[in-house]
Amino acid sequence: MLGQQKHIKHMASSSHPSAPCAACKFLRRKCIQGCVFSPYFPPEDPTKFANVHKIFGASNVSKLLNEIAPHQREDAVNSLAYEAEARLKDPVYGCVGAISVLQRQVLRLQKELDATNADLIRFSSNQNIIMNPSSSSSGNALQNPNVLPPHYGNYSWNYNPN
Amino acid sequence: MTLKGGTTQACAACKYQRKRCTPECALAPHFRPEHTEIFKNAHKLFGVRKILRILEKIDPSQKTEAMRSIIYQANMRDRFPVHGCLGEIYHLQYQIRQAEKELYAVLSQLQFYKQPRQQQEITLDSPESQQLQLGMGVEQSANGLTLFQHEQQFVPVAAFFDQSYSGNENRNDGYNNSNNNSGIHFDSKENMSNMGNDGMWVQQTYCNENDGSKTQLVNTQPLTIQEEVTHDYDEIYPFFDTIDDTQSYIDSKDANESSSESSLKETTQSVQHVAGNKLKRAELQLGIVSEDYQATV
Q1: What is the Cβ-side half-sphere exposure of residue A142, based on CA atoms within 13 angstroms?
Q2: Distance from A14 to chain B by nearest Cα, in Å?
């Protein structure tokens, strides 16, 4: 615990030794050593804290951060900042709107993939019917379709019409 | 728990705050008395005051939707304290990338099967020319043209991929605006479009070397498949209504799988229909090609 505090203190003091963090500046309070916000809300980015405070409140955020291990707090703050920004842009859906769009996209791709797979099965079965020896009048070169790529003669014919 | 002198139960919000739940309570419609855990999560992340502030700004008709999204967001934060909803966004973006890769692979394979079908139709249309074609095919193989053929084989696939996904990207403008962290996903699309451009360049050289009728043969396939893609997207639209069920979506894939399975029959039917059209078009074009060929001979 002591080491964690030292780590936070180091981060806070190394970035801006004298300036209070964006949170303390916003809340107009003294930025004490070991301030839970200072490593994650630098003074040069005041909107990050303003957004988070507007949507979740500083008290809720500090409670959340205290429940999380220090090495994960930065990720937590960044995700909260993202969610707050999304909620400000879209008060009705927030970041859930993006999730919904992505879920639709996944479903659409899944459906497209299923259809393409079905198409592939159909084409490959058609291929077998066409390449059947019953159509052996098509020539000697296609007697064994597994040996030659099926498109073999087509392009060579296209490129050299003579 | 009933209120003094009241007949109705207090909502979960009022119950938690131990205050009287009046008929005007703004949170009562969204937090039923038994949903204490749900309210606790929302209270922990947002707090009652912030929730009410969000609801104040919103049109009354959208309040239910807003509360659903707030509850979903709070539940996600409760389950994943570090990443919350953002973790789910990353996960979905990963799923999309994987599905795109898989789709690209299947399309490449499909393209491989589609080309011989044209070849076979040519041979059926003009049995006289078929022996010449096949003979030349065997000869060319000895001249090391297989590498070039291989390159050509993937040109239409790349072009198709670019076309279809640039179309989808246009439809997702809202997502682009709302989600700043979606860079990874759309970057991958940009890469795909670059691939498509490369493909188009190869196709152009192909254009210069050959007469126009044969390039039509290559270009028509992507366009017909693209129609199919558009229909599929339109069909999925109603899913947007099920936003708050997304949590169950994460845990159990059954619902999605069953929906995709049920839709598979529809899509295969549409695929068959489109394929029928494609056959007709291919026959027409191949007729032109065989005429051209006869003219050149």
Answers
A1: 29
A2: 25
With an 8 Å Cβ cutoff, are B179 and A98 in contact? yes
> Minimal Cα distance from A139: which residue of B?
B131
Q: Would you call A93 and B264 a contact, using CB atoms and an 8 Å cutoff?
A: no
Taking the Cβ of residue A106 and every Cβ of chain B, the question of whether any pair is shorter than 8 Å is answered with yes
Choose, out of B53, B55, B61, B69, the residue to mutate when testing the contact with A (most A CBs < 10 Å). B69
Question: Do A103 and B93 touch, CB atoms closer than 8 A?
Answer: no
Q: What is the CA angle B269-B283-A159, rounded to 5? A: 120
Name the residue ranges covered by the structural domains of chain A.
2-89, 97-147
**Cα B2 from chain centroid?**
49
Q: What is the ipTM of this complex?
A: 0.71
B97: its two tokens: 């990338």
Digitized pLDDT (tens) for each residue of chain A, 162 residues in all? 444 444 444 444 444 456 899 999 999 999 999 999 999 999 999 999 999 999 999 999 999 999 999 999 999 999 999 999 999 999 999 999 999 999 999 999 999 999 999 988 888 787 777 666 554 444 443 334 333 333 333 332 233 333
Put simply, whether A60 touches B (Cβ < 8 Å) is yes
